[in-house]
């Protein structure tokens, strides 16, 4: 699970970087060409285009954040399940005299 989510997150983090790059390019383009934009009366169109780029960047970042927010709980769940399995199996081993309670406590404390 962690490998799958890790691969998905790794690929997904490239999208926000590309979106920020496009947004920065648009901002630089608008700033460097401000005189031409004003001379042609394209102020509103340029602002609308920039707003569209900002909205697109926000949507991409939200998608990646949702994916990233699943990663930590998934890892915590895996660790918790393995911890519970260790306690349950260790308890069974203790009751069947395979290991001592001291061995179990020592093993769990090393986790």
Short recap of the structure:
The chain is mostly helical. It contains five helices and no strands.
Description of the molecule:
- This protein is mostly helical.
- It has one domain.
- Helices cover 89% and strands 0% of the residues.
- The protein has 5 helices and no strands.
- Helix 1 packs antiparallel against helix 4 and helix 2 runs antiparallel to helix 4.
- The longest helix has 53 residues.
- The two termini are 20 Å apart.
- One of its GO terms (molecular function) is ABC-type transporter activity.
- This is ATP-binding and permease protein.
- Keywords: ATP-binding, Membrane, Nucleotide-binding, Transmembrane, Transmembrane helix.
- It is found in: Cell membrane.
- InterPro entries: ABC1_TM_dom (IPR011527), ABC1_TM_sf (IPR036640).
């Amino acid at each position: 699970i962690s490998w799958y989510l890790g691969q998905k997150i790794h690929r997904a983090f490239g999208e926000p970087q590309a979106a920020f790059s496009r947004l920065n390019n648009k901002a630089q383009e608008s700033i460097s060409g401000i005189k031409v934009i004003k001379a042609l009366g394209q102020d509103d169109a340029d602002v609308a285009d920039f707003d569209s780029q900002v909205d697109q960047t926000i949507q991409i970042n939200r998608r990646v954040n949702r994916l990233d927010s699943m990663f930590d709980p998934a890892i915590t769940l895996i660790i918790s399940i393995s911890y519970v399995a260790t306690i349950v199996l260790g308890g069974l081993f203790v009751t069947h005299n395979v290991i001592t309670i001291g061995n179990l406590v020592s093993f769990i404390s090393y986790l």
